[in-house]
Structure prediction request, 482 residues.
Amino acid sequence: MAYEPVIGLEIHVELSTASKMFCGCRVEFGGTPNTRVCPVCMAHPGALPVINRQAIRYLARIGLALGCSIPERSIFHRKNYFYPDLPKGYQISQYDQPFAVDGRLEVTTQDGIQDVGIERVHMEEDTAKNIHAGESGRIADSLYSLIDFNRSGTPLVEIVTRPDIHSPQAARAFLNQLKNLLQYLDVSDCNMEEGSLRCDANVSMRPAGSEGLGVKTELKNMNSFKHLEKGLAQEIARQVDILESGGDVVQQTVHYDVGSGLISPLRSKEEAHDYRYFPEPDLVPLVATGDFVDEVSSGMPELPAARAERYRRELSLPAYDVEVLTSSRGLADYFEETLEHFNDAKLVSNWLMGELLGYLNATGQSLAECKVSPAGLAELLTMMREGKISANAGKEVFSEMCDSGAAALEVVEERGLSQISDEGELAAVIAEVIEDNPAQVEQFRAGKEQVAGFFVGQVMKATGGRANPKLVNQLVRQRLTE
Ligand code: ADP
Ligand code: MG
Ligand code: ZN
Prediction:
């Protein structure tokens, strides 16, 4: 029998608000442990939470951008469990009355465009962080564990998809596009290494073409989309093996070991009743008034689709360029900032798609790490437009700028790459080339005009490619017809 995978994702996003979800402590990654804490996020007796309004604005942005409806009223629940990184003994979260429901995200995959349903988007708080002292950083072989409460109470949004995804590749594509959307929304830095964006993947198998749902397992806390894709493929293979040998998949959490590529069971999955959910008595219900939703909608940053449309319409860029440029918020911003200093959209686009992305790919750098600023690139393009350097030299200069962070002018001077546009200097070289090639001069004068190209080539060679070819062409013809 052929099986089809069914995948649903739960994504956690740390919001980049100034302060925590229920107290005034600063939100920031890392730092000296336990320096951004207070009675609320340390759960001292009697401390009371207060809802962070900006976090709710960001939450609403995400809900609206995912096409969700926002019920007028939602409430917070306590999700009870015991773990050292959870000082209150419960996490404030949302349960059966979440902030936003029933959305969708259109995802471009290898198999075309697919619609992934969004079940819910809700607000909660992040836990503190356990630090297991020991070489591996794992609890099993640590002597003791320390807890850093700096992260405790960071606003955390959970996005839950419907089980609408049917391959590991599509799951990765979904996550990439969701991340891009979140970056456009300006609600999170989405830094996966720092855990600002984390994902749990649920997966089950069913006979291809059928409608029901099989028993699922859950891969926890994957913080790389590439690993998630591999882990899913591995888990799918494991489930198929079980089913084909007549066994039953057990509902549980599994661990994917990135190093060995192996899946191992972690623990049996909790049920909702294990958490003894009950409404948080210290917080008022969240009432999303029409005015509030309007305020958030009108303050929404420009989304990728709108930007793409603007690039097509106002800048007349081809569809392919538009797709590449808007595929990440960072690249689109870089593009627009370069345009502010150098007003040729297609040329800038070519340089970003060719030279910049080429360099980043080859070196494994991210755009944020790139040493060339948009203004720096614009300066280089301007030098090329003014004929101060050739297009080929430009590429060499750019790559050196990326390596060293030097400015275009510095590199050009240091490497002697400036283009020779001085007529006197060129005239001397041309005179020499003409004198050395009398046969070609005869040919030209007999009417074979294309021989001019030969002379241009000789001049370029003699100057190490630095002569301004347009000017040389003009001067050579002048000289030969004198
Ligand atoms: P749980 O209560 O176990 O957390 P939920 O119903 O909240 O399960 O769903 C969690 C995630 O798992 C959602 O993304 C959902 O789409 C997905 N999911 C639910 N059932 C299945 C299934 N049988 N196979 C794959 N994914 C599933
Ligand atoms: Mg769940
Ligand atoms: Zn605090």
Summary: Residues 423-480 form a domain with the Arc Repressor Mutant, subunit A fold (CATH 1.10.10.410). The first strand starts at residue 3 and ends at 14. Residues 20, 23, 25, 37-38, 40-41, 153 surround zinc ion (ligand 3) (CB under 6 Å).
